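Researcher: Before we compare anything, I want clean individual predictions. No alignment, no superposition, just each chain on its own. First chain goes here; please echo the sequence and then give the C-alpha cells.
Model: Echoing the first chain and its structure:
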Amino acid sequence: MTVTVRVIGAGRAGRSFAKAIDDLVDWDAIDMRGRGVAIGDAAADVDLVLITTPDTVVDDVAAAIRPGRAVVAHVAGSLGLNVLAPHVRRAALHPLMSLPDAEIGAERLMGGWFAVTGDSMVADLAVALGGRTFEIADDDRALYHAAAAVASNHLVALLGHAQRLGASAGVPADALLALALGSAENAATLGPAAALTGPAARGDEATLVAHREAIGRRAPRELAAYEAMLAEARRLAAMEGEA
C-alpha cells in the first residue's frame, strides 16, 4: 500500500524531500504547496503532511492546517512537537545534513542520518530512504541542534578562517581543503582525540608561539579565532592523554 505525503514548503528542504520520496516504491509525494497556496485542507486526504518551511513559521503553518487523519510532521532540528498543536498525530523528522538544492538534497537524504520523535511514520520514511535514525527528546532539541550547527556551520566557518590565514602566505585554498578532508576522514576512522595531530597534540610550545607571532603581524584579526581553536585542541589532546 502506498503512503501518500503532502509537502508544505517549496524551498530547498521541501523540494529535496519531494524528489527523494518520489523515487521510493511505496511512498508518493502527491503535491507540494508553497507560499500563497491554501493549506487548510492539507491533512484531509493524505497519510503524512511534512512541513518543510523555515523554523520560525512552523507553528503558524501547523495551526493553519485543519486536523485530519494525517500525521503532521516538521523537519526542523530545534523544534519539538508542541509547535504542531492541535494535531494529535504529530512527529519531527530532522535530516542531519545540508540540503543545498533539490538534486543534491535528494541524494543526501538517501542513506542519511535522521533525528526522529513522535509518530513512527516518520521513522518509517527515514528507513524507506535507506537512512539511520536516532531519537531526540523535546527537552534536548536545542542542544542537539547546537551540536549539529557546530558540526556543519562552525566547520565551514573554520575553513574560512584557515583559508584567510593561508591567503596571507599564498597557500591555495584547495590545498587546505584537501588537508581538512583528510583530517575529517581520520576523525571518522579514529575518533577526534586520536586523530589530532600538530603542535598542540605534541606539546610543541615553540611552534605555537611562532604561530601567534606570525598571525599577530600578518593577520591580526584572525588571532582571536586561532586562540579559541588552540584552546579546544589542547583540551582534546588532554582527553587523548587521559584515555
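Researcher: Okay. Second chain, same rules.
Model: Second chain and its structure:
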Amino acid sequence: MSSFNTDDFIKDSVRKLKAYQVNEVDAHKKALKLDANESNYILGKNIKKKYADYIKNTLINLYPDPNSKNLLKSIEKFYGISSKNFIFGNGSDELISIILLSLNKSVTVNIPAPSFSMYEIIAKYNDLNAKIIRLNDENFDLPANIESVVDKNTKNLYFFSYPNNPTGNHFDRKIIYGLLENKNNLVVVDEAYIFFSGEKSFLNELTKYENLIVLKTFSKIGLAGLRFGLLFSGDKLINEFKKIKLPYNINSLTLSSIEFFLKNFDEFEKNIKKTVKQRKVLYEKLSVLPFIKVYRSDANFLLIKLNDEKNKIKFDNFLNGNNIIIRNFTGGMEIYYRITVGTAKENKKLVDYFIEFSKNL
C-alpha cells in the first residue's frame, strides 16, 4: 500500500514557503522581550475594571454582530469615514489576504524590501507574481523612478508600510501620489505605525483616488491581543472585498472591546506619547555606542545595524545568554536588528546590556 503524499494535494506555492516564525519565550526565564512591536504598557487598574464591567454582558453564545451600530458609529467618528467604506479584519493579515485573494492572477504585486514579510508570503500562497523593489541603502527610501523598475505590461499593485517596517521611515508621498495618478495601479498604504509618527494619514485621499486602499490597526498601541484591523477604500473596491470577507470574522469580545477602547482612547494617547518620548531617549543612548549604527524612526521601534559583521555571532550569543529578544532578519539583512521601544525601565536595561557588550569587544 502506497504512503500518503502531500504533494498530491498541496499546491507548489504553499510547499515552497517557509512558515512564519514567531519567537518563543521561555516562561521560566525573565525575558527582555522587545521584538514584536507590541506596546509594553499595561492598562491601569481603574480602566481594567471599567473594561471588565463593559464586556461582562457580551453574549458569547451568539454569533458576533459585525454590524454593531455603536461600534460602526464609534469608528466613523474616530476616523471621519462612512461605515460603507470600511471592513473589519482579524488583524491586518486577514485584510491583506482579502486584497490579494481578490486579484486577477495577471496583476503583479510590488513589495518594497525590506518591508513587512507577510505581503510577500500571502502573495505567493495566492499564486501571484510578487516583485521585490529594493529600497535605497542609505535612507531606505523608494527609488524616485519606481515605475521604471516594474512591469509596465501588467496591472500593478503596490504595498507601502507607512511608516515602513522594519526601517521606521516614511516613503516619499510624492512617489505614492504619482503611482495613484496611474489608473493601472492599485496602491495599499498600511498605516499600522502612524500613531507614533505625527504624519498625515492617506485616509483623506480616498475620495480623490478610487485605486487607493488604506489599512489601519490598533495592535501597535496596546491591543495586539484583540487582533483587529480595518480596511478603507472607495465604493468600487470595498464592494468587491465585502464579497469575500468571511462572515463573523471578528469575535464578539473583540468587537465589544474595540467599542470600549475607542470611548476611552485617551488611555492609549498617553502611552503613545510615552513611547515617542522613549524612542528619542533610546535613540540618543544607543547612537553613542561604537559597535552599531542606529536609524531614526517614526514608529515604535528602532532599526540598528552592526558596524562589523564579524561581531554577529558574538552579539547573537550575548542576546541569547541574557534572554534579550529583539528581531533579527535574513535575506541580506543578517546584521540588522529591530528593537521595539519599551518602557523606560526596559529601555534602560537594554542600554545597560548593550554598553556591557560594547566594553567587552
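Researcher: What stands out in the second chain?
Model: The mean pLDDT is 93. Additionally, The chain has two domains: 6-44+267-359, 60-263.
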